[in-house]
User: Which sequence fits this backbone?
């Protein structure tokens, strides 16, 4: 029985760790993130029996001129009609620029935090 449960427990533990790490990253982006204008590299639309979803790959330069790439997934309502080369507002951590998110997501988090106060 343990041979069946152990892999399931390990996967669930891994998911919990990923969620906790991402929550902490989002909190840091809200607290001390720096805004930047990224550029869309690619945008793929997919739909899995729900709202239209976009997977957006973008690139940006940090305050030192270093180029970084990241990918976000969000509903199409947040960013319809994106094409390669289009501007894409983001927020990144100045001390760890590989950690970034869309500005729209960070603004949504800020609104939710304000509503809870």
Assistant:
């Amino acid at each position: 029985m343990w041979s069946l449960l152990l892999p399931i427990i390990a996967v669930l533990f891994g998911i919990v760790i990923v969620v906790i790490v991402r929550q902490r990253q989002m909190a840091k982006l809200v607290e001390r993130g720096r805004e930047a204008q990224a550029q869309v590299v690619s945008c793929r639309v997919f739909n899995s029996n729900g709202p239209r979803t976009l997977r957006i790959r973008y690139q940006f330069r940090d305050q030192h001129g270093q180029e970084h790439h990241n990918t976000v997934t969000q509903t199409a309502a947040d960013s319809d009609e994106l094409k390669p080369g289009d501007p894409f507002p983001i927020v990144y951590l100045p001390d760890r620029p590989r950690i970034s998110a869309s500005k729209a997501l960070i603004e949504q988090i800020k609104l939710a935090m304000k509503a809870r106060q």
User: Anything to note?
Assistant: The radius of gyration is 17 Å.
